[in-house]
Amino acid sequence: MSKHSYDVLIIGSGSAGFSAAEAAASLGARVCMIEKGKLGGECPNLACIPSKALLAAARAFRNVQETKTFGVACGAVAFDFEHIMRYRDRVVEKLTGGGVHGDRYEQLLKEMKVDVVYGNAVFEDDHNVLVAGDRFEAKAIVIATGSTDFIPDIPGLDQIHFWHWYDALSKKRQPKALAIIGGGPVACEIATFYATLGTRIVLIQRSARLLTREDEECARFAEDRLRAMGVEIVMNAVVSNIVDGRGGVYGVHVDVQGTKTMHAVEQVVVATGKRARLSGLEEAHVSVDPRGSIMITNEQQTNKKHLFAAGDVCGSGLMLTSTSHHEGFVAGYNAALFALNKRTPKMKQDERVVPRITFVEPEFASVGAVAGSIKEKHGSVLVGRAEIQNLGRAFADHAPNGIVKLAAHPKTRKVLGGAIIGPHAGEIIHEVALAIYANLTVDKLAEMIHAFPTYSEAVTNAASNLTLE
């Protein structure tokens, strides 16, 4: 067994791990990254980028179908599902560089002078990690192992070849009917893609509505849009069992408050959330919370002063690429300071303002607190509201309706949250995010001149149309 020593060891190469490597290397630390699969982790290889490529293809198909409104004739409109999946593959390959592990990412790490070792990492003790028979020792270690799917205990699920959510983004054959278990962003995006291309979808959600962390009015709007696309949404639902009916059909038995139904589908997708990936970390003896996520300080430090953690393994609740990237940089920076014994002030993570987007049609974006939680905390809340359909740009584009909502402190009038469902919501939300970050009032947003005609005008309209609730 050979032994290797470094200043900083990073386990995982996803958004958190890559960012940690960049931060640690920038301080002059000798850094080694351990990755058991493809560099870049889940986001570029399985999740964020593949799903957006597929949704872009679906959007193109939908837009071509609507050209008659503008006096543009396109003739018969069709799609090639296998070609769409090949487009998805090309996008991923272009971003990652292709190759076994991701040539582009390997080159970036080489330029940062970060060594890479491929294999499964297992802690021998809190200073040593074993990989493929070799021992790696470091003065500081960043744990960025990500998350694993939460698979619910449903009778019969283990007897069928169900799809994990990421399988739904890579299969070469389009199913005719699909049951999606879950009601979060991933489930809604998969439903949007397949429904646009004509697959019959039943979305099965345990709660009383979809997207439960988001503004209820906007979430209900998203539900209505999905239904308009033909998606059947079953709320307050418990999947009691799944039966393999043979012949390529599964029977999904659902109980809705005593009312039992059965849905015959060709495939079942499980999109019920994620849990921290702790396999191989046992001998590190880091503290975890009741949900099994590593507990950290705002400096990304665990209960062991030389061990840091970042990303999904910390279970921040959001599990977003953006938060993982931010946490990873803080963890890598502070790990390098510890390893190099530098007295430079430590970095602290700041996740007060984190925009989040669900890529349904139209996009649904939000940031900060929802109005209900603000009212619960302060007794009342200022709510600003505007509809997309009243904008000149929406008339010109023949755009679907949408909503912009702002939530502000009832006394200081500072912007505390916002939600947008409408065209380009994922871009517009950053104006609201900046307002929260800069402690601006709704009055400042109302005063700001916006270009005409744009969808961003709705932010000003909402800031000018306030009610106390």
Automatic annotation (TrEMBL):
<dbReference type="Pfam" id="PF07992">
    <property type="entry name" value="Pyr_redox_2"/>
</dbReference>
<keyword id="KW-0520">NAD</keyword>
<dbReference type="InterPro" id="IPR016156">
    <property type="entry name" value="FAD/NAD-linked_Rdtase_dimer_sf"/>
</dbReference>
<feature type="domain" description="FAD/NAD(P)-binding">
    <location>
        <begin position="6"/>
        <end position="328"/>
    </location>
</feature>
<feature type="disulfide bond" description="Redox-active">
    <location>
        <begin position="43"/>
        <end position="48"/>
    </location>
</feature>
<dbReference type="InterPro" id="IPR023753">
    <property type="entry name" value="FAD/NAD-binding_dom"/>
</dbReference>
<keyword id="KW-0560">Oxidoreductase</keyword>
<feature type="binding site">
    <location>
        <position position="52"/>
    </location>
    <ligand>
        <name>FAD</name>
    </ligand>
</feature>
<dbReference type="GO" id="GO:0050660">
    <property type="term" value="F:flavin adenine dinucleotide binding"/>
</dbReference>
<feature type="domain" description="Pyridine nucleotide-disulphide oxidoreductase dimerisation">
    <location>
        <begin position="354"/>
        <end position="463"/>
    </location>
</feature>
<feature type="binding site">
    <location>
        <position position="273"/>
    </location>
    <ligand>
        <name>NAD(+)</name>
    </ligand>
</feature>
<dbReference type="Pfam" id="PF02852">
    <property type="entry name" value="Pyr_redox_dim"/>
</dbReference>
<keyword id="KW-0285">Flavoprotein</keyword>
<dbReference type="InterPro" id="IPR004099">
    <property type="entry name" value="Pyr_nucl-diS_OxRdtase_dimer"/>
</dbReference>
<protein>
    <recommendedName>
        <fullName>Dihydrolipoyl dehydrogenase</fullName>
    </recommendedName>
</protein>
<keyword id="KW-0547">Nucleotide-binding</keyword>
<dbReference type="GO" id="GO:0003955">
    <property type="term" value="F:NAD(P)H dehydrogenase (quinone) activity"/>
</dbReference>
<dbReference type="InterPro" id="IPR001100">
    <property type="entry name" value="Pyr_nuc-diS_OxRdtase"/>
</dbReference>
<feature type="binding site">
    <location>
        <position position="312"/>
    </location>
    <ligand>
        <name>FAD</name>
    </ligand>
</feature>
<feature type="binding site">
    <location>
        <begin position="182"/>
        <end position="189"/>
    </location>
    <ligand>
        <name>NAD(+)</name>
    </ligand>
</feature>
<keyword id="KW-0274">FAD</keyword>
<feature type="binding site">
    <location>
        <begin position="145"/>
        <end position="147"/>
    </location>
    <ligand>
        <name>FAD</name>
    </ligand>
</feature>
<dbReference type="InterPro" id="IPR036188">
    <property type="entry name" value="FAD/NAD-bd_sf"/>
</dbReference>
<comment type="similarity">
    <text>Belongs to the class-I pyridine nucleotide-disulfide oxidoreductase family.</text>
</comment>
